Amino acid sequence: MADPFDPARYVPMAASALGLPLAEEDMPEVIGAFAVLARVANVVMSFPLPEEVIAAAVFSPDDGKAP
Amino acid sequence: MIKGVRSTADAVRAGDCSALEVLHEAFDAIVAQNGRINAFTAITRERAEQAAAAVDSARAAGRDPGPLAGVPFAVKNLYDVAGLPTIAGSRIDRAPAVRDAALVRKLTAAGAVLVGALNMDEYAFGFSTENSHFGATRNPHHPTRIAGGSSGGSAAAVAASMASLTLGSDTNGSVRVPATLCGVFGLKPTYGRLSRAGLRLFSASLDHAGAFCRSAEDVALAYDALQGPDPEDPACARRPAEPVLPALARGLDDLRIGVAGGYFTSQGEPEVFAAVESAAAALGATRRVELPAAGVARCAAMVITSVEGAELHLPDLIARSAEFDPKTRPRFLAGALAPGAWYAHAQRFRRWYCHALQEVFREIDVILAPSTPYPAFPIGQATMEIGGQIVPAAGHLGVFTQPISFAGLPVVAAPVAQAGPLPLGVQIIAAPWREDLVLRVAAAGEALGVFRSPCPVSMEDAAYA
C-alpha cells in the first residue's frame, strides 16, 4: 500500500500552524529534510512499546536540592 | 612542537620549563598552523599570558601549580569563555559571556591555560565542520578533506599540535567522529558525568561534554580534572569524582572484550571493519555481541535531536531563519514541524533500549565497534556510495556513533595505528559509569601498538624540521 503521507502538503500547513515563515526558496530543502525525519520517525513509531515503559526524564521538582 | 598533557604538566611542575615558555610555543604553533587548518575562531592571548604567569608564580612561591600546570587547552566555541560571545558556530548576535563554563573553570583551577575557542558546525548540528560563516576546518592529515564534526576545530587543533588538550561536545558522535577522522583520542563520558553548565546546548537529552588528546593517559589526566557533580546542570549526576588515572595501566587481564556484530558490520567501507578486526585481534577480543535495535536507536536519536534543537532556536527560526547556515537551516526548520508523538515515543524507546543494553553488559565488560563508516572525505562532497546505496556523506558519519551515545554509554574513540593513508578509529564502549574500563583498554592498546595518534606528515617536515 502506498504511503498516503505527503511532506509537501504537511510542511507548509504545519509551519503555518506554528507561525513559522518558510521562504519559497527554502521549501524544497525543508520538505526534503522533513521527509527524511518522517522516514526515521516511522522506524521509531513502528517499534512497539508497552505503556509500562516510562521515559527517564531528568526533571526534578526541586532540582535535586535538599530542603 | 608542543607536548602532550602529561609531559607538559610534568615539565612545568618540575621547573624544567615555565608555563609562559609553553604558552609561547603554543602560540607559535597556532600562528604556523591555523591559517591552513582553520581550527580557531578566537585566540585568548591576554588572558592566557596572565594565566600562565599565575602558574609560574604559584610554583615560584612553593604552591602546587595544579595537575595540569601550564597545559595549553582550547574549547569548542559553544563553551562560555568570559568576555567572548559564545557563538556556537552562528553569526546571530550574542552578548559576551560573563563567566567561564564550569569545565573551563575546572581546567583553569587545575593549572591549564586557555588559548582560544574552536570552530564547529553551526549549533553542533553536523558531522563535518563545513561552517558556511567561518569556513571549513581542514584535516591536518589532508587539508583538502574535512576534520569531521561537530567538534572539528577541537580535533584538528590537537592533531596539529596547536593545543595539548581540547574540549568538545558529543550529542550523536560530535567528539568521536572528528577524533577518528583527525587521528586523536576522543572521550565521550557517560551521559551526566561531566557538567554542561555554561555550554550552549544542542539537544539537552543527549548532549555530553568530552575531551580530545594525543594519548589515552593524557585523556585520563584531563578527565580526572573535569569530573564532579554540578547542580547547575540538571543532568549532571550527583556522584563524586571517580579518578581513572590510578588504575589506568592495569592492562587487559580479566576484562571480557567483545566486538559489536550485526548492525555494526555493514554500512561502512571495508577498511573500517578491517581496523576493528586488527584492534580486536591485538586486544584478544574474540566474542561477538549483538546490540538490540541499534538501528532504531539511531533513528530515535535523530528524532530527539531534531525536535530539541529546533525548539531551542525556534524564536530565531521564526524571526531570522535567513541568518542560519544553509547547511543546518532546512534540518532545523524540519525539526520544528515534527509531531509530538514522535518525540515522546523516541524518549520512551530510549529507556527500553538502555535496559536491553544492561543485559548485554552482564556478559561483557567492553565492546569494540567501528567509529566512522569511512575516513575523511573531501570538503564539499555531498554524498557517498556505500554498498550500492547513496547516502549523505556527512550525515552518514554518525551511523555507528549514534546508537552508543543514545544509551549514554562511555566511549573512547581511539585511532588505529597504520589503518591506512588517512586516520581511522574504533569505539571502545563500556557500561554506564565505567570510563575507567574504556580508558584502560585504550591505554593497553596504545602500549600494544595497535592504537596510536599519528603525526600529520605535513608537520613532520615544514614548520618543525
Give a verbal description of the structure:
The complex is a heterodimer of chains A (67) and B (465). Chain A is an all-alpha fold and 67 residues long. Chain A has 2 helices and no strands. In chain A, α1 packs across α2. The longest helix of chain A has 19 residues. Chain A is elongated, with a radius of gyration of 18 Å. Chain B is an alpha+beta fold and 465 residues long. Helix content of chain B is 37%, strand content 16%. In chain B, β6 and β7 form a beta hairpin. Chain B is globular and about 60 Å long. In chain B, 63% of the residues are buried. The C terminus of chain B is likely disordered. The chains are: A mainly alpha (67), B alpha+beta (465). Chains A and B meet through α1 and α2 of A and α9, α10, α11 and α12 of B.
Summarize this, please?
The complex is a heterodimer of chains A (67) and B (465). By secondary structure, chain A is mainly α. Chain A has two helices and no strands.
Q: Beta-strand percentage of chain B?
A: 15-25%
Binned strand content of chain A: under 5%
Number of helices of chain A: 2
Kindly report the average pLDDT value of chain B: 96
Main pleated-sheet profile of chain B: 11 strands, mixed
Read across the widest sheet of chain B, the strand sequence of neighbours is 1-3-2-8-10-9-16-17-13-11-12
Q: How many β strands of chain B by DSSP?
A: 17
Tell me the helix content of chain B: 25-40%
Structural class of chain B: alpha+beta
Cα-based radius of gyration of chain A, to the nearest Å: 18 Å
Distance between the amino and carboxyl termini of chain A:
58 Å
This entry's quaternary arrangement is heterodimer
Find the structural class of chain A using helix and strand composition.
mainly alpha
Low-confidence stretches of chain A: none
Please outline the major beta sheet of chain A. Answer: none
Tell me how many strands of chain A there are.
Answer: 0
Average residue-wise pLDDT of chain A: 87
